[in-house]
Structures
1.
Amino acid sequence: MSLPSLALHKIWMEQCAATENIRQRFGLENALDYLIGEKLFSFVTASEQHPDFAAELPAFVAEIRRLFTAAQIHEYLLYLERTKFLAPPEPDLEMGDDEAEEEPWLENPTLGAEELLRFPRIRQLLQQ
């Protein structure tokens, strides 16, 4: 199946629309995880390499700020900071070492550093 007729750099519009359904079906935290924790981080990464994505970034951020209150965004960013960026991963005592799923950036220090550096930029974009 091919992507919709939207250009790839405009896919954020569909992702924002999907967020409303995610919020209704699975709750606020899942909607924030999807749109900010997953899609915005990916979009910012793409915007660093592709001018079309960079040009769309302000509109994407504005739509996120329309979908969520400033307080919801602020709390979510604090949550990300505490659980993903500043806290060491907690071992899952029920899983063996061979079974544990890790974030790809935990295995690759370069990806981890890039994500860590990207976080303050995303915070600044969302809290302007």
2.
Amino acid sequence: MIFLNDLLLLGGVGMIAAAIGILARDFLLAIKHKQAVATAGAGPVPEPPMVHWRSALGLAFLAWGPLLLSMGIVVVPSGMGGVRISQTSGTLPGTLYPGAHFIRPLAESVALFDTRDQLFTTGAIESPKSGGGKPAATAEPLRVQAKEGLIVGLAITIRYHLDPKHLDYIQSNLPQPVEKEIVPPVVASAWRELVPNYTVREVFATRREEIRKKAADVITQKLAADGIVVKEVMLRDIQLPPEYAKGLESLLLKEQQNDQMAVQTEIQEKQVRISELEAEATKAQQVKQAEGHAQVKVLQAKAESDAMQYTLPLKQKQIEQTKLEAEARKEATVKNAEAMAEAKVIDSKAEMERRKLLAEAEADRIRVTAVADAERMKNEGAILKQNPLLINKIVAEKLSDKLQIMMVPSDGKFFFANDVLKSMNMANRGSEADQAEGTEK
């Protein structure tokens, strides 16, 4: 929208500039024509150039169109608010918020107001300024009269902003600018009505926050009726009268000394009390210790008496126990001797029975062995009777354990070593024959 406004304005100005240029060109040509006529003398005179009044007037009238359209577009910047003012009806109700708005050209105008937070400050160091959200400050603090009639300087700061919903009321009913014509008198009036109800000491120290809150409430109510919203009221500093400041300083020193003396007195009283308590504690401790020692001695004597009462029966019981233990040992000795004698008798009887059983077992073993040997010899006799060659085998085995005996069938059928044995027999016979011949020779 801003671009369109600038474009329309540029178009209108351009048309007006073109109309002026056309007329200037025509006038320049006319001047040159007059100069040419003056220098030509009696010769032929050229026709004078035409002035294009219609073209220039047409462009000039056409230029009012985009200019009027651009004048009908109003842009409200950010942080601002606008109010339409009619040339016939005055201030129109409603607020124009940031952005582009259309108005009736030449019949209406827009008054802009800053809706951002603003500061009203007294007692500031910087020079007075206003607008743009910057503080409108005075170099001197706000001077008010206290209850005693003394003048007190107040350094205060009021943070406020205009209510966008009531800009039409502010424009039509309040003097402008509001930050200079309305806010300072209202703030000063509120403090000057409130502070005289309090003493300088109350304003400076004891009831300072109470006064600030009351002043804030009064200022907020008064400015809210005019469409001004107060956010915060700050009481930054208080300047006391020089004489009162000196007296207050000496008073504070005396109060400080008084407080110091009171503190020292309280400390000494506490020290005395501590000493008394320590003495009472020591006394009580000694009494308790004495009572404890007496009770210990009484308990010791009572314990010894009780011990003597229980010692004699205990000794008697020990003697009786010793007698009983001796009788028990005697009876145990007799019983042990009898048991040992009985054990020996039982052992001798058991030994005799064991020997008897061993003898019977040995006799049975001998009988069984004899029967087994007779049976074995009978069987061996039958076997030897059937196989006489077994005698030779048994004799050979008894002679040496290095001999190996082989049993073969007597007929030698189907035995592969038959030929070998025959050859060995023949060789043995040949060697025997040779030995016999040698012996004969």
3.
Amino acid sequence: MWRNGVYDYLHYHATVHEALGVARGHARVRFGGDRGREIEISAGDVAILPAGTGHQCLSASRDFCVIGAYPPGPQMHVTLPTPENHAKALQTIPEVKLPKTDPVMGADGPLVRLWKQPTNSYR
């Protein structure tokens, strides 16, 4: 749906899940907000971000390029971590429908099976 990088400021999407595929280069991205994990990603990696997952690019190679996509449904909005946005997100995130297919492996992919499990079974 788009080709670019990952924003260098903390943000999330409260109305849709996001798939990020690294096409070129490498970057250090923090997933999970200010206290999240910093992960090195590079060409060939895919990150699946459930709605509400904070993310921010901390550093990137000059050629870093990501292909991003969202499942059909509500429009994506960039949400900044403010108290007002957090209160709204607590209402919208639980309403985001699960994708019908795994964005990498298709209808029978592992992500579909994982997301259908009860929440506490994979924590």
4.
Amino acid sequence: MRRPVLVVVLLLGLAAAMMPLEDRIHAERVALKYGGTPVTLAMRDRVGQGMAIGLLAGFRGVVADFLWIGNHGYFERKEWIRMYRNMELCTTLQPQAVTFWDTGAWHMGWNIAHAVSIDPANRTQAEGLKRQREWQNKAREFLADGLANIPHRWELHHGMGMLYWLKFNDHCQARDFFRQATAFPDAPSYCLRMYARRVEDCDGPQAAYDLWKQYWREGNPIPSRDGIDLKSVMRRELRRLEERLNIPAQQRIRA
């Protein structure tokens, strides 16, 4: 009897010793929002039995990739809701995947929103515009969830800026998101131009001119990682704004 009792005591002691480690791992996963989603019955039903086995085996990334590929079929068949739910599921499985968030929002705000606006099933043009706005709102909510999960990537800030600029015609909100994108060291230099142009639209040409003057004096505020000659861009923008503001020749920046 002593040996079984000893084994049980050892197992209980090992389990007690592992609990702090498991708690710490769980806390880290929650803090990072990475891989902490439980495989529920509802999720198993959504992905199918075969893929559920992959989830239980720990292959979340592989399952998410397969699900993402399936979006193309939903798009061709115009199954917008199924496509939307599938994209949601992909981001649930892989909340740190920038591509899922960024491309998913693009599909909603651009592709699906346009498709529903010209759907022959719309009884009136107003109905088409209403459905279009609903999908643009979904794109905004989707990107907001993405930013909550991945606040440290420039792509989602840039994507939200594009959405506010081109779909909601809100230049001031777009300006703020483009500014946030430029703050990241790996942001491409075109984010700077996007930001400055939205400053011009929101705050006026003088504010944009002051911003470009500041950039010119600082040198290269963002390293060029996309093949753009930022000096030429700054020079061109300064000249354009000086013409627009009728800046006297003696007061213009020598660029």
